[in-house]
Design a protein that fits this description.
264 residues; mainly beta; 12 strands; globular
Length: 264
C-alpha cells in the first residue's frame, strides 16, 4: 500500500485564485519570440515517487511559419502546425517521453525494479489561442502514441490563462488532465506476475483511465532585451489506477523548473 501525504491541492487552488484578479493586467504571450536556453528541473525520482532529484533540461519556445519546438506546454516537443483560423491551430508533433530509472530511487533499487527506458511519441494536437477580456487564454488538446506501440497512448487537455504582465514580468496559471490507455498505464504502473516474483511487490493490473491532474504557475522575467528567465511550478495528483499502484509511494508530486533563455 502506498504512503500518501496530506493533499496539497487545496492550498495550491487558493494561491491560484488569489492571482486571478491580476488578469486585468495581462497581455498576450509573445509566441512570435524565439527563446533558446537551459535550466534545472526538480522533480520526483519517477511519477508517484516520494523522493526528488534534479536534472538539467533544455528550455525552448521556437515558432516558425509552420515548424515549432517548445517546452512551454509541459513536454519537450516539436513538429508542424497549420493555422485553421486566426485563433485555432492544428498540428503534428513528436514528444519526448521520460522513462523510470531504477538508480534514481532507493525504493526501486531495493526491489530490483527494472528500468523503463525513455522514448518518444508521435501525435496530433489542436490549440486555441484567444483573449477573454484582457486576459490571454490558451487551450490545448494533444494525443500522443508511443513509438513502442506496446507502451500505449495518452491524451492531454491543458488550459492556460495569463494573470500578470508588467514591463519585465509575465505570469500565467495552467491546469492539465491526462488520460492514458491500458497499455500506457500498465507499462508504467502495472506489475505482471513475472515482475511480482522479481520484485516482491503484488501483481497489479492498471487499466485505461485518467492518469493525473495538475495545476501550476509559469512565469517569465526579462533581464534585458535578449535574456529571459523562465520559471514553472506544478502540483501533480495521480488518479485512479495510477494512484493505487504498488509503485506509487506518494500520489501528490511537485515539479519545479527554472532556467535562462536567449531571445532572438
Amino acid at each position: 500500500m502506498h504512503r500518501e501525504r496530506h493533499p496539497a491541492w487545496p492550498r495550491a487552488c487558493l494561491m491560484v485564485l488569489g492571482l486571478l484578479p491580476l488578469a486585468s493586467m495581462a497581455e498576450d504571450w509573445r509566441k512570435d519570440e524565439k527563446l533558446v536556453g537551459a535550466g534545472l528541473w526538480i522533480r520526483p525520482a519517477y511519477q508517484g515517487a516520494d523522493s526528488m532529484r534534479t536534472d538539467p533540461i533544455p528550455q525552448l519556445r521556437l515558432y516558425g511559419e509552420h515548424w515549432f519546438a517548445r517546452t512551454t506546454q509541459g513536454l519537450l516537443e516539436g513538429g508542424y502546425r497549420v493555422a485553421l483560423s486566426s485563433s485555432l491551430t492544428a498540428g503534428a508533433q513528436l514528444t519526448y517521453e521520460p522513462g523510470r530509472r531504477t538508480k534514481d530511487s532507493a525504493f526501486l533499487i531495493d526491489r530490483n525494479v527494472a528500468t523503463l527506458d525513455p522514448g518518444a511519441a508521435a501525435g496530433l494536437h489542436l490549440e486555441w489561442d484567444e483573449k477573454l477580456g484582457p486576459a490571454p487564454v490558451s487551450a490545448l488538446l494533444r494525443w500522443r502514441q508511443h513509438l513502442d506501440f506496446d507502451q500505449g497512448a495518452k491524451v492531454d487537455a491543458r488550459f492556460t490563462v495569463g494573470v500578470l504582465a508588467t514591463e519585465r514580468i509575465r505570469a500565467g496559471v495552467f491546469t492539465q488532465v491526462t488520460w492514458a490507455s491500458e497499455k500506457s498505464n500498465q507499462t508504467y504502473f502495472g506489475i505482471t506476475p513475472a515482475e511480482s516474483a522479481a520484485t516482491g511487490l503484488p501483481a497489479y493490473s492498471a487499466g485505461a483511465g485518467l492518469r493525473y491532474w495538475s495545476l501550476g504557475l509559469l512565469g517569465a522575467y526579462d533581464f534585458s532585451r535578449h535574456w529571459v528567465a523562465l520559471l514553472s511550478v506544478e502540483y501533480n495528483r495521480l488518479l485512479s489506477d495510477a494512484r493505487d499502484s504498488p509503485y506509487t509511494q506518494d500520489a501528490n508530486n511537485f515539479y519545479i523548473s527554472a532556467g535562462l533563455t536567449y531571445r532572438f
